[in-house]
Amino acid sequence: MNPNATHEHAATDDHGHGHSHGLIDPSIKRSRAGLRVVAVSLVILTATAAAQAAIYVATGSIALLADLIHNAGDALTAVPLAAAFLLRSERAENGAGIAVVLTILASALVAGVFAIERIINPLAPTHLLALALAGVVGFLGNAFAARIRTRAGRRLDSPALVADGNHARADAYVSLAVIASATMVAIGLPVADPLIGLAITAVILRITWQSWVTVRGGSHAHS
To answer: Quick check: pTM over 0.85?
Structure first.
């Protein structure tokens, strides 16, 4: 009897294609790697949102509030992503991707409502140096989270992580708009703050669509 017969049988299926019966180990590794990425990005974005929230209380900037709402929503997307990796299910992961998209959309709508309200009832933000600093914090936090999520998403073949990484990358540049708001208010254009808040909302809506396309593409690839 060929001592390798058992191994050869385990390595091929009924159609003669290569097949491994030991997929649990790669699955566990993928899940653990995914959870690490989600946990690290959650810590980064939670710290970013917390710092921005403290500065928002002092400044009252709608542009900052829009960025803050979005960053907080981005941090919360870690919850469905973590659940998907814990379940080790592609279907759950695709569901997590949809949850990410819906979270982005909700943050855009909330930010838009606040911006419109501030246009109707103007109130110029204060503590402009702190406001500019909040923009810098948002940029750095999102850029770091984007790099971690996108690299891991490609390595793990996770459409949900890639979508979230692209979202965070765009968020980094959105945060720069907060610096622009502080600058415009400083030169005597306080209406620029809620208008920039509306512009941030428009960008978030575009990110929503791009993330949806990414998630749908990944879902079709796995189906």
So the answer is: no
